[in-house]
Specification:
three-stranded mixed sheet, about 200 residues, alpha+beta, three-stranded antiparallel sheet
Length: about 200
C-alpha cells in the first residue's frame, strides 16, 4: 500500500460514518493525492479541495500535504476535505454542522473560522477505530521550508488577532511599533512562522 492507497482506503472507511452521522453521501468520483496544496508556501495550508467543475473529468480533487506523516494528523485534514466533496465546496452552515457532528472544531480566523479545523473532544471517539484499523501512513514527511536559506531581509507576517487581517513588514518597521487595525485591535507580528495548522 502506498500513501495514495492509504488515503483512498481511509475515504472508503469514512464514507459510511459520514452518511450515518450527517446524512450526506461521499461522492464516488473523488480523487485524492499526497501533494502540496497550492497555497502551502503562502499560508501553510495542509489540505485542499477542488470541485468537479475544476476537473477535466469532473472528479472531486483532494490534496493532503506531504508535510504530514502521522495518521492522527492526516485523517482530520482528509476529513475536512472529504466533507467539502460530500456537503459543500465552501464553509456553509451545513458544512460547519457536518464538521461538528464528526468531531472537528473551527480553528480559523474570525472572518472564516471553518477555514481551518482541528480535532475536537469527540474526534477520537468517532475516528479512533478507523485510525487503529488503517495503521501506519506509508509516508515520511516532506521537510518543506525547513532547510530553506533565509533572506537577508525577512518580511514578517503581521496579523490582527481579532479579524485575521494580515500584512507584511520588515523587522525595522515592526520594531518601531505596529498599527491599529480597522476593527480596533492592534496587529501582532508572528515571530515563529513555521507552525502549521489544518
Amino acid at each position: 500500500m502506498n500513501r495514495e492507497d492509504w488515503l483512498r482506503a481511509a475515504i472508503v472507511e469514512m464514507a459510511p460514518v459520514i452518511q450515518t452521522m450527517t446524512g450526506h453521501a461521499v461522492p464516488a468520483a473523488v480523487r485524492v493525492s499526497c501533494a502540496l496544496p497550492s497555497t502551502f508556501t503562502r499560508s501553510g495550508t495542509l489540505g485542499e479541495y477542488w470541485p468537479p467543475k475544476a476537473s477535466a473529468d469532473e472528479h472531486h480533487e483532494i490534496m493532503v500535504s506531504p508535510t504530514l506523516a502521522d495518521p492522527a494528523e492526516v485523517l482530520p485534514v482528509l476529513l475536512h476535505e472529504v466533507l467539502h466533496a460530500a456537503v459543500a465546496p465552501t464553509h456553509t452552515a451545513a458544512y460547519a454542522q457536518a464538521c461538528t457532528d464528526l468531531g472537528l472544531e473551527p480553528h480559523g480566523p474570525d472572518t472564516d473560522p471553518w477555514n481551518r479545523t482541528r480535532p475536537g473532544k469527540y474526534f477520537q471517539a468517532t475516528w479512533g477505530p478507523v485510525l487503529a484499523m488503517m495503521g501506519e501512513y506509508p509516508h515520511a514527511p516532506l521537510l518543506a521550508g525547513v532547510n530553506k536559506v533565509k533572506q537577508g531581509t525577512r518580511m514578517l507576517k503581521c496579523v490582527c488577532p481579532s479579524c485575521g487581517w494580515t500584512f507584511r513588514a520588515t523587522t525595522k518597521w515592526v520594531d518601531k511599533g505596529l498599527p491599529t487595525c480597522a476593527c480596533g485591535d492592534v496587529f501582532a507580528a508572528e515571530t515563529n512562522q513555521t507552525n502549521l495548522e489544518i
